[in-house]
């Protein structure tokens, strides 16, 4: 699992936005939290980590502009 975690962290680090990440099936679970699969058993959750969150014209978080993330959890899948 450590190898998969390192690979997903490298993917996130090299991406210009979350739209560039396809491995791990990233999915938005609420307006502020993304989840990425590490394996069939584990997933990684993260949020944006900007001092001032990038907001789009509708007042929502603009994930295409997010360049900093904070990993909030690595847990066993439900």
Number of helices: 1
The share of residues in extended strands comes to 25-35%
What class, by secondary structure content?
alpha+beta
- Please state the overall shape, judged from the principal axes of the Cα atoms: globular
What value does the Rg take, in angstroms?
12 Å
> Roughly how much helix do the residues carry, as a percent range?
10-25%
Q: How are the strands ordered across the major sheet?
A: 1-2-3-4
Mean pLDDT: 93
The string of secondary-structure elements, in order, is HEEEE
Q: Summarize the main sheet.
A: 4 strands, antiparallel
Domains, number: 1
Rounded to the nearest angstrom, the distance between the terminal CA atoms is 17 Å
Number of strands: 4
Sequence stretches where pLDDT stays below 50 over 5 or more residues: none
Describe the structure.
With 78 residues, the chain is of the alpha+beta class. It has one helix spanning 2-14, and strands at residues 27-30, 33-37, 42-48, 69-76. The mean pLDDT is 93.
Keywords summarizing the entry:
4-stranded antiparallel β-sheet, 4 strands, about 30% strand, about 80 residues, about 15% helix, alpha+beta
What is shown here, in short?
The protein is an alpha+beta fold. 17% of the residues lie in helices and 31% in strands.
């Amino acid at each position: 699992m450590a190898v998969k975690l390192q690979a997903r962290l490298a993917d996130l680090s090299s991406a210009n936005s979350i739209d560039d990440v396809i491995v791990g099936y990233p999915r938005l679970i609420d307006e502020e939290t993304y989840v990425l699969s590490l394996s069939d058993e584990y997933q990684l959750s993260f949020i944006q980590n900007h001092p001032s969150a990038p907001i789009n014209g509708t007042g929502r978080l603009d994930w295409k502009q997010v360049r900093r993330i904070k990993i909030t959890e690595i847990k066993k899948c439900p």
